[in-house]
Amino acid sequence: METEIRFQLSLRKLSLVTVLLPLVALVVCFVSAYTFQQNEIHETHCRVYNVIPSISAITGISPERYIWRISIALHVGPRILIASLYYYYYLSLAHNVFPANKFPDLPQLISFLYWLNIIEISALMGVTYISNQDNYPIHEKIFITFMVSSLVYMLISIIVYHWTHPSMSSVQRLSYRIKATFFITSLICTVGLIIFFMKHRLYCHDLAFSWFALCEYIIASANMGFHVTVFLDFPDNYLLIMKKTLTIDAAAAKNE
């Protein structure tokens, strides 16, 4: 039996492209909306002075919404693939590192981590395709789901990564530190995001919404940075499409 490789894609390249899609789209949407549609993106219910539009504002208007939605549509598929890859990766490490009787709940924790990732990806799709202008109450609830699932996923991912890598190489240690740094950044900015949102929503302070938006951009960037560490975790892995072919000897043996 021989195998013929029909297609080969580096996971390093796939992870970088997956992260660059929403990042580039976000920059394009921001520049375009800020340049040509300032009146639309700065409008809030308080009608106070604002200089930084939220992500929802710049991706909820046309034509920017189509750029953003296309980028997320292309982004989601690889994210689900990478989520499954991490699931089996952590499971294999868990079985090698821990005896079954030492930490029997680790596989369940890894499974929970996988579903958290799926919830985060689903929530990202939700806030993308149900904009705040389409249905604000639903958009708000999905956004909260995204924020909570993202933070909890980051935290548990760091814990699982640490447990399954009792002795880390320099690259693995770098990946761990990057994950931890982006998690702490997201956590701090989430606190700021909540504070400034309440200041804007309840007291209509000038620039409160701008600070909220700034926290939102930092959180989005930290989230992308956290997930791009896949290129450190799987530096030499490839996505393959192969075809199996029978050799003459194998075909003869099969006929016998």
Strand and helix map with partners:
Layout: E1 2-10, H1 11-36, H2 38-41, H3 55-59, H4 64-97, H5 106-129, H6 136-164, H7 170-203, H8 208-227, H9 230-233, E2 238-245, H10 248-255
Helix pairs in contact: 1-4, 4-5, 4-6, 5-6, 6-7, 7-8
InterPro entries: CWH43_N, PGAP2
Domain CWH43-like N-terminal: 14-236
Keywords: Membrane, Receptor, Transmembrane, Transmembrane helix
In short:
The protein has 256 residues and is mainly alpha-helical. 73% of the residues lie in helices and 7% in strands. The chain has one domain.
Percent helix among the residues?
A: over 70%
Order of helices and strands: EHHHHHHHHHEH
Largest sheet: 2 strands, antiparallel
Q: Uncertain spans, ≥5 residues at pLDDT below 50?
A: none
* Beta-strand content: 5-15%
Number of strands: 2
Span between termini: 15 Å
Question: What is the tally of helical segments?
Answer: 10
Mean residue pLDDT = 88
The shape, in one word, is: globular
Counting copies of identical and different chains, the oligomeric state is single chain
Describe the strand arrangement of the main beta sheet, using strand numbers.
Answer: 1-2
Number of domains: 1
Which structural class is indicated by helix and strand composition? mainly alpha
Radius of gyration: 22 Å
